[in-house]
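Input for the complex:
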Amino acid sequence: MKSMKTILSTLVLSLIFITANAQQSFSAKIAKVEDKNVNNYVVLTRKVEQLKPILLAAQQLAKEDNNQFGNFEIIVCGKEIGDLTNEEKMKEHLENAERVNATIIACGFSLNKFKVDPNKIPGNIKIIDNGILHNINLQKKGYYSLEL
Amino acid sequence: MKNSILYILMFLSLGLMAQDKNTHTDFVILTSQFDQLEPILITAESLSSKDNFQIVLYGKDVKQITEPEMEKYLIWAEKSEAKFFVCQMSLNRLKIEKSELPSGIEIVDNAFLYSLQLQKKGYKTLNL
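Predicted:
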């Protein structure tokens, strides 16, 4: 009788394990399917001059991913954020970003901290409250991330 | 009955082993600071179960790889099964020729692109 109980409990435990395994692989499959649909990217940078290699990377990834190329967001934060108001410096970057459908985002927290007037930020640059939080939220959604 | 339990357990352990095989053990570390090479290589040394450990250098500090000090890091990397890469865009900017690089360092076109490409392949990444 005792051995029967042991056998039964082992079987129940095994079933639980198998079900858990199956669930895991099922959710893994769903995640993969989502990944297969599109690749999204987020790059956090503290240097405006890095926009050039970042946008070249975006261009190449768009080519590689083709239909699976999703969002490419570039968050600028830190003390050099004032450079975003420099029209001359930004012209080429903004054109390149538009060409590859990448979004340049300014961190509102940095604008505030380094006393940069948000009205001087070009209209095609999006402003969000907190660049770090935005980056983490996108990573949670499965974005590939680079923090420079 | 005992036999069937044994089969179930064997089946389960096989399942777990298969799951283990799926875990990625490839790493890429992107750094712009030469003095971070030491802690990075200590990390590479301690990771015994790695398949791939790549260190990509970019930025101003890239010029230091042409200095004699780099030799010890290259030997260390070889012992720790780590590989060094350097960004071509940084080399261009600093006007460093390929011939000036010590052997054992490979060149990638764009460090940022390279890191994102490896992430897509399932590498674990650290950007310093």
